[in-house]
Amino acid sequence: MEFMDKRIVYFEKKGKHNTDACLELLKEAVKRDDYKHAVVASTTGETGLLFSEALKDTELNLVVVSHSVGFKGPNTFEFADGIKEKILANGNKMYTGTMLTHSIETSLNAKFSGIYPAMIVAQSLRRFGEGAKVCCEIVMMAVDGGLIPEQEEVLAVAGTGYGADTVMVLRSAASKRFLDLRVLEILAKPRL
Hints:
The protein has helices at 19-33, 46-55, 83-89, 104-112, 117-125, 130-144, and strands at 9-11, 37-41, 61-66, 93-96, 153-158, 166-171, 182-190. By secondary structure, the chain is α/β, with parallel strands linked by helices. It has a 7-stranded mixed sheet, sandwiched between helices. Helix 2 (46-55) runs parallel beside helix 3 (83-89) and helix 5 (117-125) packs across helix 6 (130-144). It is globular, with a radius of gyration of 16 Å.
């Protein structure tokens, strides 16, 4: 019987206060398993900049993924002046685009009160946590944008609201090949 013996970190609570631990877990994983690509979700730029600064002297292809322009959730998220430029100056990449589960179907749902496939996918992924859903989305977004290759093992970092509380390893796929996306490992997630 062949198996891998790896640890999973479960945070007692979701949220931003887990960000530093997620950064350390990502750095450990890169060192241990020599990952070449990482994708980090960032709504205000703060998390993206933190990871960008910490990883700027590595060979890691770091892609920071932000919300599409005009996103109106509980808050309107925008990067503060200069954050995007600092991330790029550190040799990292940025991607801003439509969140895959907040596409045209969100508009149709608001108008016609129906349930649509992308919304079912989003709710299904949320069973593992908001960060797990976002990890899947941002990896596909980065592939769609041509910033990471398909069928590579990629580290993904996301959170619940602000900051980071989830770290996963995924086999990358473009959104049009969503069914080829694979969650290979969960390195950290909130328990609640």
